[in-house]
Write a structure and sequence with these properties.
The chain is an alpha/beta fold. It is built from 14 helices and 29 strands.
Length: 523
């Protein structure tokens, strides 16, 4: 039995050895064995890199960056949708010894500016479509160089023009060097830079290798965004590291995904629950041959047993589930390929421990009892950038990361998320911080007070709902509130429901009582 005194659980899987190597060396370690094999290709236009070409281009771009002073201590922002060159930029920055911060290409200028300032980026690389937003966003930031991934436009240079003699990996400490800074809201609050080291990333790739059990002839569609930790690690880096051909799409399109599965005989899909729902219920699925699929993995949000079984039956291949978060690089739990555990996120990954802690008493819960899940392992982040207080709130002195998720672990070690202690809203797997939307609402002159919660939605999992107190009754309509927010945030953060109330319930200390909004007559 994996429980020790019904308090702390260790992974039932054997530990893996984690080498002290940089992330790019690990991801490309088979390049000499498979130089002519396609590593990554564009699912729309077919452009591709073999492993040999990918390695060469990464190290040449790294040489160009280093020649212009990009190295240890420098931060490069990458604002792009999925494409083969995303992997090139990611790993070239790593080889140069710098840090990459990944930016959502659908962000508004205000959202981009916040991340550029907080991360102290001095270079920014983007797809052409994002250039107007980026150029507006860099005002007031430290960004000195702007590069587009297409043709150079105006003062922005082209990525293709950055080419030099290849360089070797710039020496760094793999355990402490921050290689990537994705932004997450943690358990609450505004987005924070999650400091992930080379060792964090390499460790988590090795922790999931045996569980995902890739074979030698596999391919996968990568439409989960690379700027998000799920796409970055579970798709881009893991697939490249284990010689699975990566077929990129800039965004999810059900018809295009189904067509690629049929024509290119795709073997793996990595999805979020709304896509599993589409596979289970959308009538167009019946028009395609999906027999090449061997396994589908869902993550980023919990998924129910019934919808999983319905989709499995229709598609004809097993569907597993995993659990993770940006602060965990990202995986802590995953169902092994071939393991049937409907509704559960599987068992602990190798080298990982967890505790289920009673949120009232702080005492560890016995098996089968709900509590907040704490996780410890080599995948736990170094901390939050520029925010020691938030780091201390998230990680205990002895290394336990508080996930903010209320979970149950049975005596066989299978974990199921049953609720969230944290305030984050999960929209199609993306985090939305209520505090961010509330700050925007309170900035409007007609709004006296506001609170935001997540409410269930069949397609998105959850959607943001705003409770608004107006300074003058009738000063705004629901549509006015929704339009005000939609012009200031990316699409998945937009408020989809508005309810006008006389007051927002708060504690004596002024904290919004979201529980009352969810359970009382107000909501």
């Amino acid at each position: 039995m994996p429980w020790e005194s019904f308090c702390m659980m260790r992974s039932p899987l054997p530990d893996v050895d984690i080498p002290d190597v940089p992330i790019t060396e690990f991801v490309l370690r088979y390049a000499d064995l498979t130089p002519d094999r396609i590593a990554i290709c564009d699912g729309l236009d077919g452009t591709s890199y073999t492993y040999a070409a990918l390695r060469d281009r990464i190290h040449r771009l790294a040489g160009a960056l280093a020649a212009e002073g990009v190295g240890p201590g420098a931060v490069v922002a990458l604002m792009a949708s999925n494409c083969p060159d995303y992997a090139v930029v990611f790993h070239a920055v790593a080889v140069a010894g710098a840090t990459l911060t990944t930016v959502n290409p659908t962000y508004t200028p205000e959202e981009v500016r916040f991340q550029l300032i907080d991360s102290r980026a001095t270079w920014a690389i983007c797809v052409d479509a994002a250039l107007p937003v980026l150029q507006e966003a860099i005002s007031g930031t430290d960004v000195e160089q702007v590069v587009t991934m297409g043709e150079g436009i105006g003062s922005a240079r082209s990525l293709a023009s950055l080419d030099a003699e290849p360089i070797a990996q710039v020496p760094i400490d793999v355990a402490t060097h921050v290689v990537v800074l994705p932004y997450s809201s943690g358990t609450t609050g505004l987005p924070k830079g999650v400091m992930l080291s080379h060792r964090n990333l390499v460790a988590n790739l090795l922790q999931t290798q045996g569980v995902l059990a890739f074979e030698d002839d596999e391919s996968a569609i990568a439409f989960m965004p690379f700027f998000h930790i799920y796409g970055m690690q579970v798709l881009m880096n893991a697939l490249l590291a284990y010689c699975v051909e990566v077929v990129t799409l800039p965004r999810f399109d059900l018809v295009k995904v189904l067509d690629l599965i049929q024509t290119q005989r795709i073997t793996r899909l990595f999805v979020v629950p709304p896509i599993v729902l589409a596979l289970a219920k959308h009538p167009i699925v019946d028009n395609y041959d999906l027999s090449s699929l061997r396994h589908i993995m869902s993550g980023a949000a919990p998924m129910g047993a019934e919808i999983t079984q319905e989709a499995e039956s229709r598609v004809g291949c097993p569907i597993g589930q995993g659990y993770g978060m940006t602060e965990l690089s990202p995986v802590s739990h995953v169902a092994e390929v071939g393991d049937v555990c409907y509704g559960s996120s599987g068992r602990l990954a190798p080298n990982t421990e967890c505790r289920i802690v009673d949120v009232e008493t702080g005492v560890d819960c016995p098996a089968g009892e709900p509590g907040e899940m704490w996780v410890r392992g080599p995948q736990v982040m170094l901390g939050y950038l520029n925010n020691a207080e938030a780091t201390a709130d998230m990680i205990t002195p002895d290394g336990w990361l508080r996930t903010g998720d209320i979970s149950i672990v049975d005596e066989a070690g299978y974990m199921t998320v049953v609720d969230r202690l944290k305030e984050l809203i999960k929209v199609k797997g993306f985090q939305v911080a209520p505090a961010e939307l509330e700050a925007l609402l309170l900035a409007h002159q007609s709004i006296a007070d506001a609170a935001v919660i997540g409410v269930p939605d069949e397609e998105s999992g959850e959607i943001p709902k705003a409770f608004v107190v107006l300074r003058e009754p009738g000063a705004m309509s629901s549509q006015d509130v929704e339009s005000y927010i939609s012009g200031r945030v990316t699409a998945y953060k937009r408020v989809r429901q508005v309810e006008f109330v006389e007051s927002i319930p708060k504690s004596a200390s002024g904290k919004i009582l979201r529980r009352l909004l969810r359970t009382s007559g107000i909501g």
